[in-house]
Write a structure and sequence with these properties.
Blueprint: H1 25-38, E1 46-52, E2 58-64, E3 67-69, E4 72-78, H2 82-89, E5 92-99, E6 104-114, H3 117-126, H4 129-137, H5 147-160, E7 172-186, E8 194-201, E9 206-211
Antiparallel strand pairs: 1-2, 1-5, 3-4, 4-7, 5-6, 6-7, 7-8, 8-9
Helix pairs in contact: 4-5
Amino acid sequence: MEDLAALRREYADVGLREADLATDPFTMFDRWFADVQAADLYEPNAMVVATVAADGRPSTRMVLLKGVSERGFVFFSNTGSRKGTELAGNDRCALLLPWHPLERQVRVDGIASELPRQEVVDYFASRPRGSQLGAHASHQSRPVAGREELQAAYDEVSERFEGRDVPVPEEWGGYLVVPEVVEFWQGRPGRMHDRLVYRREAEVEGWRVERLAP
């Protein structure tokens, strides 16, 4: 195996200054996401979601960000999955969007809550039919005997809903993560990266910005 400790690259001197920031993290996120889309990155809305179990064990997985507004960050999932179970017991979570080709990342600490059912229904209706069927066939995070069992479940669901709309599974839903902290990270030479952080100030209904050492 290649020596992992020897793997490194120097970052460009693009930089992120306080003067570059928008007044709120959502507007800033929109600016950066526009850059990501212009760069034609693969799965630009892929993000890591970190949750914590009741026994204190953390876990992470990749999901797709499906909405950003002043309310917060939205993603959808099986609520009976490991992440769903952990969020039900501890609503604090963290998000990370890594955009390596642009030498950028966005990190979010926040509180998750389930979306209203109608929002879930509306989004589910917009999904490709194959994904809708898969949501019924797969009880996410639970053990299965093998690939054959999954395929059999998918085939059964496909036959059951043939010729009609696929309803939303009971255990399928969505989450809104209301951020308390949003960090914008820009790579810099010499590992002197820029880390500018918005922190929510509830008492003034605004955001405080601070710089962190890299």
